[in-house]
Amino acid sequence: MAERFSSMYSVDSALAKVLQQRRQKLGALIESPVLLWSGRAPSKNFLANQYSFRASSHFLYFAGLPIQGAAICLHQGQVTLLMEDVPDSDALWHGVSPTRQQIAEQIGAIAHYPLSHFPDYRAAATIPVQDLWTRSQQSQVLGRSWQDATDLQGIDRDLAEALVQLRLVQDESAIAAIQEAATVTVRAHLAGIHQTHSAHTEAQVRAAMESVLLAENMTTAYTSIVTVQGEVLHNLYSHRKLQPGDLLLADVGAEHPLGWAADVTRTWPVSGQWSATQRAIYDVVLAAHDACIAAIAPGVEYAAVHLTAARVIAAGLVDLGILKGDPTTLVERGVHALFFPHGVGHLLGLDVHDMEDLGDLAGYAPGRTRSDRCGMQYLRLHRPLQVGMVVTIEPGFYQVPAILGAARQQAALEDCVNWERLATFEDVRGIRIEDDVWVTPKGPQVLTAALPTQADEIVQLMHSSPVG
Ligand SMILES: [Mn+2]
Question: What is the distance in A from the centroid of ligand 1 to the CA of 353?
C-alpha cells in the first residue's frame, strides 16, 4: 500500500496466501455464507476519545487486518468486504485513509460494498461480537438476537463449531506471529527482572516490562499483573511499594500487531535472594511446571496434564510437611486446590484465552462439561492435545486467605493439613510459573524457553547487567 496512507498495516503475499487457505478451509466446513464483523473501539467519556481498537479475533483470522467498523462475508472460500469509505474530512485528524476498494485489494476480496448492502446477507451465519453497538447492528441485519456468544443456535452454532475446528490448530503463519510475541515477552520479563533493584514500586517494574512491548510496536495481550500480592490471582493494581522480603509475581504478555498473543508469568524475590521457605515452594511449583511440559504430546489429555501438576504440588507439599498423606489421595480429595485452585492453563492464539468468547465450546471436547470436583472446576481446557495447538502451562501456589480461612473451619481437612507448619511459610503469598507451549509431532516446543525458570538463574539475572 502506498506510503501516503497513515495506516501501518499491510498484507504481504505470504499472508495473503495464508488467508486464502483459511477461507477455503472454512468454506469446506460450512455451506451457508458467513458474516463476521470487526467491531469498533468504545469511547472514553466523549465520542471522539476512543480506546485503541482491537478487531474481533474471528474477523482478524480471515481478514488479516484490523479494519474498524467493517464486516466480511465469507462464502465458498471467497471474501467480500462491507464497510463505509472514510469521509475526506477525517484526513485532517487521522491522515489519508485507504479507500474501501484499496482495502478490498489488500485483503483479497472479490467484491466490496457499503454497509447499505447488508440486507443481501440475511441468510448468513455469524458470531456476535463483544461490543454492544456492533452486536445490535448484527442483530438488525440478520434478524436474530443473542444473549451472548455462548448460546448460539442453528447456523450460528454450526459456524462456531467450524471456527473452533480451524482455530484450535495453529497454522505456520500463526505460530510465527505467536513466536514473535513470545520473544518480545521474554525480553520484557528480562527487563523487569533486571530493573527490580532500582524500582521502588510494582508500577516501576511494570513500566520497565511494558516499555519493551511498546518499543516493538506491540501492546499487552491482557492487563498486566505485576504484584507482590500474587495470591490475588488477577491483581490489576500496581501501586504497592516493594519490600525486601516480598516475592514479585509478573504475568505480562505481548500482543503482536496482527493480534496474536503471548502469556508468560515469572516470580522472583524483590531483594534478589530467596528465603528458604520461598525457595522450597518455588521449587515445588517449578517441578510441577517441568513435569507438565514433559507430559505434553499429541493425544495426551490436557486434564491429565493438569492432574500431573496437582499431584506434583501435593507431593511437594507433603515433603515439606505442609500436607499429610498420599499425594494421589490428596488430589482425589481436592486438597491440592487449597493452594492451586485454578486450572494448569488454557489455549493460546489470537485471544490470550483463545476463543473463550464461545464459552467452553473451544476448551471442552464435545460432550464434556465443567466438573464440580474441587480443583477441576476452573479447568479451561479439557481436550486431548493435538499437533498445532498452543497451550499455556502455569501451575502456581497461593495462600488465599479466603480459601485457607474457610478450610481451617472444616474438621474434614484436619487429618491432611499441618496448619502450624504452613504458618512458617507465611512469606510465600503467590508463586506462578507460566510458559507457552506448541504441541508438535515430536512433543512440546516451549516458545518462551529463552526465559529462565530455575530459581538460581533468575536471581543471577537480577545481579547481572541488562542485555539487549
Ligand atoms: Mn495464562
Answer: 7
Give the whole-angstrom CA distance, residue 36 versus residue 71: 5
Residues 344 and 449 occupy one common structural domain: yes
CA of 446 to the centre of ligand 1 (A): 14
For 77: left if phi > 0, alpha if psi spans -120 to 50, otherwise beta; the answer is left
pLDDT band at 2 (very low <50, low <70, confident <90, very high): very low
| pLDDT value of residue 19 | 97
pLDDT in tens, 333-347: 999 999 999 999 999
What is the rounded end-to-end Cα distance, in angstroms, of the chain? 32
Please state, in angstroms and rounded to a whole number, the distance separating the CA atoms of residues 283 and 286: 5
pLDDT of residue 7: 59
| DSSP state, residue 347 | B
Q: What is the DSSP letter of 21?
A: H
Range of the domain at 100: 13-167
Checking DSSP bridges between strand 111-113 and strand 78-82, what pairing results, if any?
Answer: parallel
Inform me whether the pLDDT recorded for 271 exceeds 60.
yes
Kindly give the distance from the C-alpha atom of residue 377 to the centroid of ligand 1, in angstroms, as a whole number.
Answer: 16
CA distance 111 to 108: 9
Residue after which a domain boundary falls, among 135, 167, 199:
167
Q: What is the pLDDT of residues 159-195, one digit of tens each?
A: 999 999 999 999 999 999 999 999 999 999 999 999 9
- Quote the ligand 1 centre to 394 CA distance (angstroms): 7
β partners of residue 267: 249
Distance 430 CA to ligand 1 centre (A): 15
Please report the DSSP string for 428-453 in residue order: --EEE-BEEEEEETTEEEETTTTS--
Q: In 10 A of CB 405, how many CB atoms?
A: 9
* Average pLDDT of the segment spanning 428-437: 98
Shared domain for 395 and 422, answered yes or no, is: yes
pTM: 0.95
The residues, any chain, with a CB within 8 Å of residue 281's CB and separated by 6 or more, are 316, 320, 397, 425, 428, 431
Mean pLDDT of 349-370: 95
Q: Distance (Å, rounded) from C-alpha 69 to C-alpha 397? A: 43
Q: Could you tell me the CATH number of the domain that includes residue 106?
A: 3.40.350.10
Q: How far is the CA of 124 from the centre of ligand 1 (A)?
A: 34
Query: Do residues 343 and 380 touch, judged by C-beta distance below 8 A?
Result: yes
CA of 50 to the centre of ligand 1 (A): 27
With cut-offs at 50, 70 and 90, classify the pLDDT of residue 91: confident
